[in-house]
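Retro notes, structure queue

What went well: the backlog is down to a handful. What didn't: a couple of records were mislabeled last round, so from now on we paste the full input next to the output in the thread. Example, using F-box domain-containing protein from Glonium stellatum:
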Amino acid sequence: MEHPEAGKHDSSTLSAFDTALRDSHSNKASIEKLEIMPGFSRLLDLADELILGVIEQIEESNDLCTFALTCSRLQSLVEPFIYRSILIRAGSQAVDLVMSIKARPVRASAVQTLGIRYVFDFEHDIETLNLVLMDFRNLRHLTIESPCLNNGPWRNGDRNWESRCRIDYYTLFEAASLRLPYSTPRAIPLLQSIVLHAHGDGDSAFTLGKNAIMFLHPTVRSITISCSDITDNLFTSDLFRGHEHSTPLTNLVFDECNISAFGLQALLSLPRALKRLTLGERLYHFHYPPCIPLGNNCEHFMAALYTQHESLEYIKHIGSRNWLSDNPDLSTNILHYFYNLRTLELGPHSVLRKYLVADEFPGNLESLRLLSNYVHYHNPAQGLTIYTHLRSPRVDWSGIVAAVLSKYNHVKEVDIILGQAFTQMSQGFDLDLLHSLWQTKEQRDDVYQAAKPLRARGTRFKLFAEHFLGGRVFIPPYLYGEDVPQELLVYDSEDPNLFGSVRYTEDDTENIESSGVLDDEPENQESIDPADLGAKVLGFL
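Corresponding output:
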């Protein structure tokens, strides 16, 4: 997160609203004149189906708006394309949209994608949208992104929090939920996806609470929620009672959320067959968490996951680094019952990594992806470095590779992703620095020790590095206008002597033994005081 550029509006959207308003109030006479102009006769002689084919080839919104102004017949054909996808970045745009819909209500039925993504500088009047939200009968995709408490003047306590989300999405989702009588017409009855980043007031600024009613929408298949607290109260609430295994949700993403195991279990009890689950716990936020991390409540974490064990194909877990136990209770591992699980993606603090080493995983697991705590650029004098926490990052990686070699013959690919941790410098690195790391033979050997035995066993090994193409680093969730990190391939065991763009000689791997994977827990492992956390030259994972 960081602020998008202040005042950055979507000009095409504004043009569309301006066109609609001009047409509604002052352009009727000029349109009638255009209808009889000879230049339009041949086009207007075509059937509507052919004209629609022409309209579909027009990509620019401004061109669509100009086309709509030519005559009333073309306007009726073009407007559904103009209003099909709407982005609102400011309160003034919200007012324009509401006025245009009130002037011609049929326009609301054309809206299929609505993004409400505003910053605090331009939030005045954004709540005007509440007047028409119920009118979007054909809406498929809804994104609500209100100002983030982690950004702006509130972060340092210079101002009291005053930018709670002004969009009344609770009322909207309540009017669409399964809790309504079957015969009652529902709002937004065709909705397919929800992306929500919104804060409330005071102590409830982050609590999902009653807003979890969105999980009872009868047609939604994908939900993404960021910067929220998923608390135990959901487990004891009457909100979901009687609706277990009743929704079509197949994809659920939590990004930068405090997630209680009981709250997670309540939400996972609702889908009939969830296929993809992303559990991104809090890493970067400053407020005190209201629940313990999932990794410190293993029994109930496993119970929550088990509610979808028959259908889950993909699990990603970015575990919280708060209070993480060195010796979690691993006796409740039930992941070997996840018969359809194909891909696991695990952060460095995920307790599932310990399960992976200690126990069995499903026989159908094909892809294992491991994220690391790689620091992109800490100090100009030190170059690329990595933070070392309580134990060497190489230990976890080596232990998991050993587990794959000894127990998981069915795994087809192991990926390591070197992530860019957030630093105060917010400065990305030059790609030449990344590639220069592999000039050191010792660092290449660390890769070879995993890649060579895996490749010999038929498992592909890849090493990626996250990179922000714009050079500026952001932290999740990635809001409007922020770069999303791209994964750049550093190494692929299919071409074993190539690191980045540099190819090394064939004898570079001669001294690497196939059994050269490091022990999981070396006896002389150095312990580092958390108070003295520093940066150390790359010793990834």
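Agreed that this is the format going forward. Reviewer comment attached to the example: The first strand starts at residue 85 and ends at 88.
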